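Dear support,

We are seeing what looks like truncated structure output for some complexes. This example has four components. We would appreciate it if you could run it in full and send us the complete token output so we can diff it against ours.
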Amino acid sequence: MNSFGRIFRVTIFGESHGESVGINIDGCPAGLSLSPEDFNVDIERRKGGVQKGTTPRKEDDIPFFKSGVFNNTTTGAPVTILFENNNTRSSDYSKQRAVPRPGHADMVARQKFGGFEDFRGGGHFSGRLTVCLVAAGVIAKKLLSSLKLSVEATISEVAGEKDTEKGLQRAIDAKDSVGGIVECRVSGLPAGLGEPFFDSAESLLAHAVFAIPAVRGVEFGTGFAAARMFGSEHNDAIEDTTGKTRTNHAGGIVGGLTNGNELVFRIAIKPTSSTPKEQQTLNLETNNVEAFSVKGRHDLCIALRVPVVLEAVTAIVLADLLMLERHIPRILNS
Amino acid sequence: MNSFGRIFRVTIFGESHGESVGINIDGCPAGLSLSPEDFNVDIERRKGGVQKGTTPRKEDDIPFFKSGVFNNTTTGAPVTILFENNNTRSSDYSKQRAVPRPGHADMVARQKFGGFEDFRGGGHFSGRLTVCLVAAGVIAKKLLSSLKLSVEATISEVAGEKDTEKGLQRAIDAKDSVGGIVECRVSGLPAGLGEPFFDSAESLLAHAVFAIPAVRGVEFGTGFAAARMFGSEHNDAIEDTTGKTRTNHAGGIVGGLTNGNELVFRIAIKPTSSTPKEQQTLNLETNNVEAFSVKGRHDLCIALRVPVVLEAVTAIVLADLLMLERHIPRILNS
Amino acid sequence: MNSFGRIFRVTIFGESHGESVGINIDGCPAGLSLSPEDFNVDIERRKGGVQKGTTPRKEDDIPFFKSGVFNNTTTGAPVTILFENNNTRSSDYSKQRAVPRPGHADMVARQKFGGFEDFRGGGHFSGRLTVCLVAAGVIAKKLLSSLKLSVEATISEVAGEKDTEKGLQRAIDAKDSVGGIVECRVSGLPAGLGEPFFDSAESLLAHAVFAIPAVRGVEFGTGFAAARMFGSEHNDAIEDTTGKTRTNHAGGIVGGLTNGNELVFRIAIKPTSSTPKEQQTLNLETNNVEAFSVKGRHDLCIALRVPVVLEAVTAIVLADLLMLERHIPRILNS
Amino acid sequence: MNSFGRIFRVTIFGESHGESVGINIDGCPAGLSLSPEDFNVDIERRKGGVQKGTTPRKEDDIPFFKSGVFNNTTTGAPVTILFENNNTRSSDYSKQRAVPRPGHADMVARQKFGGFEDFRGGGHFSGRLTVCLVAAGVIAKKLLSSLKLSVEATISEVAGEKDTEKGLQRAIDAKDSVGGIVECRVSGLPAGLGEPFFDSAESLLAHAVFAIPAVRGVEFGTGFAAARMFGSEHNDAIEDTTGKTRTNHAGGIVGGLTNGNELVFRIAIKPTSSTPKEQQTLNLETNNVEAFSVKGRHDLCIALRVPVVLEAVTAIVLADLLMLERHIPRILNS
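Here is the complete output from our reference environment:
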């Protein structure tokens, strides 16, 4: 469903080329100061047109508070934030109705919703909706920062290269799109966050992470490499009563609970589905497999825009877990 | 929390050395034939003592139906299945109260529950509870098989070796524990399973998968390798109106929805935390970091026992999604 | 929380004098035709200014589709409907900040949200939000009508009088506000709706009903009168295999499940809290109990506006239960 | 579904004549002392055979802790409590398979579950399951008592008589069963419990209350009588900054939130469906409406057994709301 979270609960809506996209945040404490300016930095980070390798589509992306904010402060009632869709060129897409783009949700959305889906620009499946995640993430991060916690995600690999520019150059040289790896770290977390059995910290983070379009994998701590380590090598020796460990192969989570060490995890982002290269796909009118080219400009590497989105979903998950552990009160005294 | 699922909903309980472990399954259709014998194969697969590299601890693991089954048939009321804990030697563990085992939940459980947790043998955090997942999985698989669907998970790597025996030999030679990779495949799935935005098929599968102890990563289709592919290389060309694709790099999920191709995903299992090697950990009585050795016998490679558990959680997730799509009725005519 | 429902799930937001109020409907099938005109009749029924005894505050109440509707048809993605707040006179209320109105949520909202609540006109606690329920109800009723079901609520008592006009005259004569009883009936329901143990049909209906402001009681079938009947008198004799009964004291629900007979229940609405009569309340600035008069015009009998709201929440509950029983598909062929 | 609650969450299971009935409580804080003796008083209050007018069926009703309790203290893991069904005489019921008892769930259960339901003694729909509610209620009450809160329900009317004995005599004289009214009061509650919009305190209490078999209505404060009062008469004047009011017509809830005054509400219980009087019902084998007599002994007035059950569901709801407001910690220091 389009909702996530138990106490701090977000509900997302909208389509890429519909009137708007938006998010509703229930369970946000009263008394949190909140103004549109708070969103500037993260919305800017998410935008295309800034970095080499991202699309130049300009979106104003002004957050409109529709409920839950009064006198620049949250009221305790649900906060609703809307983003209008201005810079859309639907004609780009309507011609492609018969040609489901490979790697995109066009075909599956048609199958699930019987052809009634808003197909323009990916509709409800578009990466456009991640601006809503970012908005909710801004609020969640403000809650976390009241506990001196900060979440930081960075791009750690593009097209297999640690150096972003080198990775992008591979895309440019090949006239193709490329993928990447994004890493997220949170330090200062209290021990004990996460709820056995099914709501382990990894379970909730992974759940939220796979809502981000283009994510294909997630790993905590040493992750897949752990499968090739010896136990004596992988185990982190506990060094003091706070639970601090000598190494951090666990990435800050043991038994599904945060253990007081730095939370570290990574996600794999597939190459942008819209690539400059010609591809093949089914034409639903002719019923033939045909050559197909993406019109317009697209991100060469969508992974570059993911860090701020990953921070957002991480903060959303942690805010909820912190509330379950009674670390965040219902009324903030700021 | 200890519940998972929206319509087909499981609730798990119990501790390793308490009186019992068990699971409650709500939303199971009426009319499904069910007898204790149905559980034999999968419970046997999960057991130690059979394969080289797994622990010889013998557990009877008889499923006791406590509710929801009448005349060997589900009634539509919640099914509760209990497993008694017989073969426990708590004295092995009580001495270790002061010495939280590295890699285990001992320390974090103590922090979360203030020392009130049942610490014996890992308590509620023990791998023992996976027998309950297996039991619910048997029921979920029976529901899937009524739609001609089958779930199959296999060990694909032990200690970095494709050949299980070679991988185990590495553990034996090193007198240490090792990890592994388990792969799961489901064919015949209808297109359109998964719920945007937050309940994508990957989100729900990953959520459930990380409830399995020792899982450190999950990847769908080409997974992490996708981050190093070009878009034109990664995209799967759609070949017919059912959505069948030429390749299956997506692993059967696009846009968070199953696309009618084979579902393929892999999980990374860390090396067994209890290793024969001497390790170091904090002694909470002396407050010193001390040498520590695991008593008793343990699995050299816990990954060997995971396939049947992975099948179980996969079937549980799919049964729920199939119900949401109205593919499974409330009353079965078997 | 501000969400309700399991498959057909509504999320409400907004404040009386904020920018807007709105509702998000998740789980609505794709393919339902929907245009703003569909809302006219029910929104009109809810409005004040039409009937004697209701407030003349004019609200335009135009439903703006913000997501989930494309080509006048639902897409399967969440539907978001916004109503702007135009006709507000906040100055009426800001002066009263120090004087919590008796019978209203002013005082409790302040206590719960620490003074950060939007206090203008009742804020998030205002009856204004019922326009959102009505909007979701229009959609739910359209789903029900595809199954030939209709929901009808009527005012059955005003100020103790069966004759509405007589009841209102009592209010006018006394220069005071009055309460009333509203009855709801649904015929044609299939047997078996409702989910034991906690989601009985009565449980879910009552849950939703008490979200409507001013409701003080709910009773099914003979309701409170049942407590004074003999068993042989109250039991409804089953007459045929459809479950049809000779009498309908049960009001169409037995054992928490609909029994195929007409669903009948009633709710009690308290007199409008804003009464023309002078009252007493605490002044939070002076800390004295003082005389207090409501400014502006208000409904003499808010119960008159409740029937359409009661129909709405009833339809919302039934749509969800019908989906759980697989009576409503995910894609409508209209 | 068979679960209820957001943080303090109960899951119920079992059938009247199956092997057992039981309840699982998730979200119970660690550190609560708990022994089987804690349950004696309330289980005894619920039992038949003690009061005039209740059935003499003796049930041992020993609570078996299956999980979540260690050293007579809750561990923070889910608590599972089982009650075995000993004193059952299924033969009483199996003959009646073809004759759905009027007022009971026999017919609707058959329709919902296609004849697969455990029909013996009402199966999953039996009042037998209320022993599980009582057990969870004992735990919830212990949590409340740590905040100096106590819940008290009393029978306030039997067969229309304030004097229980008189009411019962009416049943005995008429050789018929009778109904009653039960009232519940809780004092000392903090203001602000309840969650707008859909989880008002009344919504959650009503939801839980209608899970109790035989409940036909619920009203808060003056309830249905409020519909016949004037506004100036019904409004409770606020007298001090704690929110204390001069009168308490609201029954302690305004705007869906507790207001710091005594919580007062009443429920209507229908006459026991199993009455000594001969009745008529459909015979599903002959397809004729036939005379029908209840075999065995039954409660003349089931309402007499309800107070302790009403206390239980009230305490369950309040424990959850208190946790949402962070009034109950995750670890108790007792």
